[in-house]
Amino acid sequence: MTETAGMRALLDLEDAAPDVLWEPVPGAGTLFWPLARWPVSRAVAESDIGTTVPIYPSPTLRQRVERAVRRSLPNPFASARAPRADHLFIVTGWTKSPAVGGYVNWLGDAFADALGDDAVVVQDAFLDRLSRGMQRPVQARTFSYARALERITRRTEASPLSEADEQRLRRVLEEVFGRLPFEVTDAARERAIGDALGRARRAPHAEREFARLLDRVQPRRIYMQAAAYGDRAPLVRLARSRGIAVSELQHGWIGSSHAAYNFGAAMARSPLVEHLPDTLLSFGSFWGENVRFPGRIVPIGKPALDTLRASAPAYEERAPRVLFVSSAFAHETVERTVLALRDALPDGWTVVVRPHPSEIATIASKLPRLAAEPRIEFDTIPDAAATMLASRAVVGFSSTMLYEALAYGCHVAVVESPLAEFYADERIFPVRIRETDVTELVGALSLPPRATEQAIAESVWLPGAVERFAAEARG
Q: What domains appear along the chain, each with residue ranges and CATH number?
């Protein structure tokens, strides 16, 4: 894979290490740049390769009212009730799969289970005694940070940054944009500045709230989802200042164009480096080969994938279908490719389109040419892995699901695009769909993937994840 021009510009900025990168956030222990670099990178990517920020639907009035009522009740799952533990998992609570009695968090639950009473899971997602079904975690030592996040929001509104401080931080970002060789749109610039300033406003209150959690749990190690994205930088810095090791659990695609995992020289220097996790626990050796990360990279694997790989049906036992994974990108290309696949596949085969999570509710309007076509279906079930395990081939631009499909013994093809160039390594995915030429993929579908392709899959997905994690955690 090659890095995007925007990623290269961000690295050049940090290699030059201008003084602007060391600007502090007023009232907090954190610096501003770790909070701002991800919003800045998104604005640059929009003008560089045309990616956009996904927009998720807001909760309905009924959902807001129900949540307000439930939040007024005593909550035994509030993070303020979390017990002491050597190992603390900080997760969003949205990386989940259905299980008997509720859901499992596929990112961390198996790791936490392996540590037993030495581990506590704290999730951002709301959880209370009325939570049922896919709102209820199976992992017994799971607590919710939602009320703490609400306190942070209220305190941020009650004690905002001064107008002078806001203007100073805005000037910092304007200088950063001025140093980057990209003309971003006014809308993208303002969105990035608004996001970064919002993070800065919350930082002092986020630090104080997280300090209470650390005082209560007193962990020796923290495993944090998305620790390198910057929004959790105040928490990472606070933990590391207390001598607590912070590891990030890889949750999705990582590569040389991902701004959360590639850093220039300034980010390897103190005090900026203290805003980043000291260890990245990756899915396999492949991922560490493609990033500039100023810390340890330890290949661990993915527990849920180990389980699913063992249960995957034989290739010949799967339904004759091809799964197209959408990336909320280039909808016209999606339509042309899906129609070409449908027309080239033998009778009895189906093409299934899985929308990006941000487009589940609107996918028919995003892809109108496919909505009523025969032998084309839309898949919106929560568990994406179940869909892949029932497919013989997976096609897409850049989704992590393309990499996962390797482990499940699927044929995989990548649609050529700016995304594919930067996010889908041609060594891993040699079968490419250019224009609407699907000949190579369709010709291969009569037989399962070759053994050499499965060997490549193991470099991407290291087996034995739980055992490897336990050895790392207790080492």
A: 1-299 (no CATH), 307-460 (3.40.50.2000)
Could you tell me which residues come within 8 angstroms of residue 61 by beta carbon, excluding any fewer than 6 positions away? Answer: none
Tokens of 404: 């996962």
Strand order in the sheet with 321-325: 376-378, 350-354, 321-325, 393-396, 411-415, 432-433
Confidence of residue 41 (pLDDT cuts 50, 70, 90): very high
Half-sphere exposure for 127 (CA within 13 Å, toward CB): 29
The predicted-structure confidence for 141-180, as pLDDT tens digits, reads as follows: 999 999 999 999 999 999 999 999 999 999 999 999 999 9
- Kindly report, residue by residue over 427-447, the tens digit of the pLDDT: 889 999 998 999 999 999 999
Record the tokens describing residue 400, joined without a space: 């992590």
Beta strands 96-99 and 102-105: pairing type?
antiparallel
Q: Is 466:114 a contact under the CB 8 Å cutoff?
A: yes
Provide the pLDDT for residue 363.
80
Measured from the Cβ of residue 22, the count of other Cβ atoms closer than 10 Å reads 14
User: Virtual CA dihedral for 215, 221, 226, 232, nearest 10 degrees?
Assistant: 30
Distance (Å, whole) CA 34 – CA 231: 8
Residue 472, phi then psi, degrees to nearest 5 = -70, -40
pLDDT in tens, 208-259: 999 999 999 999 999 999 999 999 999 999 999 999 999 999 998 899 999 9
Question: Which amino acid is located at 3 in the chain?
Answer: E
Contact 92, 448 (CB under 8 A): no
Pick from 86, 6, 25, 41: which is nearest to 275 by CA?
25
**Which H or E run contains 120?**
strand 119-123
- Side by side, the strands of the sheet bearing 279-282 are 142-144, 119-123, 87-91, 221-224, 245-249, 279-282, 296-299
Instruction: For the chain, give the number of residues.
Output: 475
Cα–Cα distances in Å, from 267 out to 126, 272, 354, 386, 444? 33, 5, 37, 39, 45
Comparing CA positions, the residue from 214, 216, 267 lying closest to residue 245 is 214
The full DSSP string for 388-433 is: HHT-SEEEESS-HHHHHHHHTT-EEEEE-SHHHHHHS-TTT---EE
